[in-house]
Amino acid sequence: MTARYYAPHLSDDDSCELGGGEFHHLTRVMRAGIGDRIVLFDGRGNAAECKITGLTKICASLQILERRSEPPEVVRHVVLATAIPKADRFRWLVEKATELGVSRLIPLQTTRSVTEPGSNKLDKMRVTVIEACKQSGRDRLMTIDAVTDWKAFLSEASGIGKIFVAHPGGTPVAEAREMTQRDRAIVLTVGPEGGFTESEIEQAVAAGGRRVSLGSNILRTETAAIALAALCLLSAPFLGSGPGSAPTLNDSET
User: Fold this and answer.
1) How far does CA 106 lie from the centroid of its chain?
2) Tens digits of per-residue pLDDT, 209-239?
3) What is the C-alpha separation between 237 and 231, in angstroms, rounded?
4) Bridge partners of residue 44, in order along the sequence
5) What is the pTM of this model?
């Protein structure tokens, strides 16, 4: 796989430059040289295959050889609203959600939440999104919202799409056929380790949410979140529907 670099201001011209941290990675880590080919992506669904034509101490000059843009219709808009797991499990959740193709992640503050990441932590998670896009071949960044209160989230969620709430007493997830309907956005909601309170569940149902169960085993927050996202994004009807729509294993991971 050709090495990929994040260029949020990808030029429309036939040539461009790459500087900053991505340039450092290109030259100091990857040891790239003139004539090598790389891929730039802007995080908004656009990418370009480029050839390195020049190197200075601060930037690389690139010739754009080929462009591609992700058609809007291949994007499955899945929003993941989840309480935040402790320590590095949040980073794992962000990384895997990005690889799967989740469009937006909303960190939730609920009654039983045990952690609330600050702005610095969320900024680090946004860097994780970029790294996961580089690794997975995804050209569109997953957005991460500020931490959102449960009631504030519900007031917005019904306007986004169908809400599904992970809950042991819900409908078996395999029976929730509308989770795989591609024609509308869906919102997947996962509570903290102690679960949602009954009041929060009632509020979600009142907002149009549907409770879905992932089985009898007790799952950690990040496991439930990724399981729900995978069930929605890797459903058989949508595999291979467009560039970046179906993740594949790297050769080194098989």
Assistant:
1) 11
2) 999 999 989 899 999 999 999 988 887 443 3
3) 12
4) 140
5) 0.88
